[in-house]
Design goal:
The protein is an alpha+beta fold and about 450 residues long. It contains 20 helices and 15 strands. The strands form four sheets. Strands 4, 5, 8, 14 and 15 form a five-stranded mixed β-sheet that branches. It has a four-stranded mixed β-sheet with strand order 10-12-9-13.
Length: about 450
């Protein structure tokens, strides 16, 4: 799930992304800026508020940073790196590494001094990074970070009660729909099914709706909307697994009913197929994340609509969400400079720029109230869904969930397996992994 694998008062949730895009070779790098003035000048430059935490630390003498970034969001980081160098006189080199790969790469390259000083990771990888002592706590900017970002973002950036990350964006999924085929978005999955009965024609490869039916990330709404859950105690209890709870099985009733709307095998659905069919008008609705927004806007123009997910069994749909967070490498030679960069690149102006360039969902509370975000019908729809999302658990055992769950869903969809029996099997497999080999 490469893509996988885009919220306070606005994103208050029991709390993505994340789904992240594939990155290129880390050797594809760029240097920005040179160090030519003193630390004191750098710290007080650029209009820095001397009362803020950023005025309390200065970059180390001779500091130079390497940051990792995805290919898809590199344009943002190029601009932020230039601005950071201009303000702090610290050069920044960018290397392309997919966020989903960065913790693994940190574990390999961190001790030898070859890793980036600042990484950007999906929050569900945080527990693995902390357990391996790969990253430093967000200690200098703790209060600013908590004050400025949503409750969900802070939850995602925190592990075992300690703040480690610097939130920069949120991701969840919503309902894309073709306005030339539907006048308005359906309010429930029963409505989706009713429309699909008039539109779906398997012989013509036309379907009312399509989504990755074998992927737990996109199907969490069929677990949690009626009260199911993954791990208990707000995602922290590895021994309390709720995928097979009575509440989860209630939501899975809607999942089973939707096979009539999408009568194809789970293996015949992938992002490329789905994207092509939606762009051509042969799929009327798609459940997907903000990473598809730019392409869908280009293909459908004014006919593109985005709405929160339809209700599941009469309940507001609960999606998975991910928080992308900056983390500072525990092995960095320049911890002050790295912490300053993580704070700078996740602040209000930076999140506005990221939203403008790639359509990200901000986590900064001021940015969420900015006209740039509130007046965008697409981003505001994702933000509305994010209010009813839950962040993926960040405990290391999260890595043990995907394979069993992603095997159970196709059993239900393709082979008509009993949902309770399939989920019982998945839960036992997850427990065996949790109590055996460490999460991978």
């Amino acid at each position: 799930m490469n893509k996988l694998m885009t919220l306070a008062a606005v994103f208050s949730m029991t709390v993505s992304l994340t789904a992240c895009g594939p990155g290129n070779d880390a050797s594809n790098s760029t240097n920005y800026g040179t160090t030519n003035t003193s630390k004191e000048s750098a710290a007080n430059g650029g209009g820095t508020d001397t009362g803020s935490a950023s005025a309390q630390i200065t970059p180390e003498d001779g500091a130079a940073l390497t940051v990792w970034e995805s290919k898809e969001e590199r344009a943002f980081t190029e601009q932020i790196a230039k601005q950071f160098t201009q303000k702090y006189n610290v050069p920044v080199k960018i290397e392309e590494v997919a966020p989903s790969d960065q913790v693994t790469k940190l574990s390999q390259d961190g001790p030898s001094g070859l890793a980036a000083d600042v990484a950007v990771i999906p929050h569900d990888n945080l527990g693995k990074a902390v357990a391996a002592s790969l990253i430093l706590p967000n200690d200098v900017f703790t209060e600013e970070t908590k004050k400025n970002n949503t409750e969900a973002a802070i939850t995602g950036a925190t592990f075992d009660g300690e703040l480690f990350g610097y939130p920069r964006s949120a991701e969840t999924y919503a309902l894309y729909y073709n306005k030339s085929l539907l006048k308005e978005a359906p309010k429930s999955f029963d409505d989706v099914l009713a429309f699909s009965k008039t539109f779906t024609d398997k012989s013509k490869n036309k379907y009312g709706i399509m989504w990755e039916v074998g992927n737990l990330y996109f199907n969490y709404m069929f677990i949690a909307s009626t009260g199911g859950y993954l791990f208990g105690d707000n995602g922290t209890n590895k021994d309390d697994i709720g995928l097979n709870s009575a509440q989860a099985i209630e939501s899975l009733k809607a999942f089973v009913k939707m096979k009539e709307a999408l009568p194809i095998k789970s293996g015949d659905i992938n992002p490329d197929i789905k994207r092509s069919l939606f762009n051509s008008g042969d799929v009327a609705m798609d459940i997907n994340g903000p990473w598809e927004l730019a392409g869908y806007k280009e293909a459908l123009g004014d006919n593109l609509g985005v709405a929160p997910l339809p209700a599941v069994e009469g309940k507001t749909a609960t999606s998975f969400s991910g928080i992308k967070i900056y983390c500072v490498n525990a092995y960095t030679q320049y911890p002050n400079a790295a912490k300053l960069y993580a704070e700078f690149a996740s602040g209000k102006d930076a999140q506005l720029l990221l939203n403008k360039l790639v359509g990200s969902i901000p986590t900064n509370k001021e940015v969420l109230e900015d006209a740039q975000v509130k007046n965008d019908p697409y981003i505001s729809a994702f933000a509305e869904q994010a209010k009813n999302s839950q962040p993926m658990p960040s405990i290391p055992e999260m890595g043990n969930v995907w394979s069993p769950a992603n095997a159970a869903l196709p059993e239900i969809w393709d082979k008509n397996a009993d949902p309770k029996a399939a989920m019982d099997k998945a839960v036992q497999q997850i427990k065996d992994l949790n109590n055996g080999a460490a999460a991978q």
